[in-house]
Amino acid sequence: MMNNFKFQNKTSIRFGKDRLEAELHDAIAQFGNNVLLVFGSGSIKKSGLYDRVMSLLSDMNVVELSEVSPNPKISSVRKGQTLVKNNDIDVILAVGGGSVIDAAKVIASSKFYDADPWELVVDSAKRQTIEQLPLVDILTLSATGTEMNTGSVISNPDTHQKLGTYGPKTPAVSFLDPQLTYSVSKWQTAAGSIDIFSHLTEQYFDNGANDVTSGIMEGLYRAVIKNAPIALAEPDNYDARATLMWAATMSLNGLTSVGNQNGWTVHPIEHELSAYYDITHGVGLGIMTPRWMKHALSDETLPRFAQFGRQVWGLTGTDKEVAQLAIQETFNWIKSLEVPTTLPEVGIIDDTYFQNMAESAVMVGHLNHEAYVTLQAADVVHLFEEAMTDHDFSK
User: Fold this and answer.
1) Of the residues 20, 85, 177, 309, which has the maximum number of CB atoms within 10 A of its CB?
2) Residue 389 backbone zone (phi > 0: left; psi -120 to 50: alpha; other: beta)
3) In this structure, what DSSP letter does residue 389 have?
4) How many whole angstroms separate alpha carbon 37 and alpha carbon 64?
């Protein structure tokens, strides 16, 4: 049965080749003349994108915030808060992947907040009560879907926390040019593709699942599974890059969660790994997802896993055979992208923090009462232990 729901998304998507020269200036100018440009480690300068952007904004007052890192840190948000306040910023332009855009969203809220912006991460409800600067973004990595949603994930290394926070607005305008992802490394292409796959999984395995959104997600799953290997083998294959880019956006713009009941599971677990070890988010998701699937498979969940196997992986057989093989196919696909599939491969060689991470994941993610399959801390510790070695997931 479909639950009651409300759906609205106001982001203006500008998808396709070479739209910046014709549209970027006016997309920003509608909000004002004082711009905060947020970007990462400097790859946009090497690619020439920085010069393109700056030439288009030559008549505006542009202030820069660079060095936003993967798993964006609260320190970048704090620097951005100072800049938006001191320079009376009207609009933020974020150029980069999910980390850059996530940080920019919280910075956009922080202009209207006079205390530490970490409080806006810890308490999303507080963010909903204050204004948020308009945000324009130029996406350079297909992964998080942040270009068309209200969410951000921010890390605080001092407290070993990596938390999601939600603002009152989605980005105002998002430029999605698949050509800008040609230079993305194999590692980040693979990690981004796994991230998309995981976003779908968190929403597909839900007690409020319905035929409409299930069908949408199954199509998105198939598109990602097919095109990720193509993008790895042919980095400048426009169709593959375009498919991954739009699939990432569609997988987390709110449409695929319509009618859902349950909270997410693997993301809160992986956020603990990233908070303690600063590993690549998508890679961590790839390690933990098959382990969660194996744990979640039961007589009660068997029909859903069987549907997943038939509609996503094209498998045939009994429900039990298809469900088990679907988990193995998931693991095989992740491994085929040439990323680590165990925790030791990403530098986690012992169980020092397993209990702490498990307890935090359960508490922050409400895994013991809101998840599709509820988990206690001991269950999460077991998943970490399972992730120390490879397994046969077909049994």
Assistant:
1) 309
2) beta
3) S
4) 5
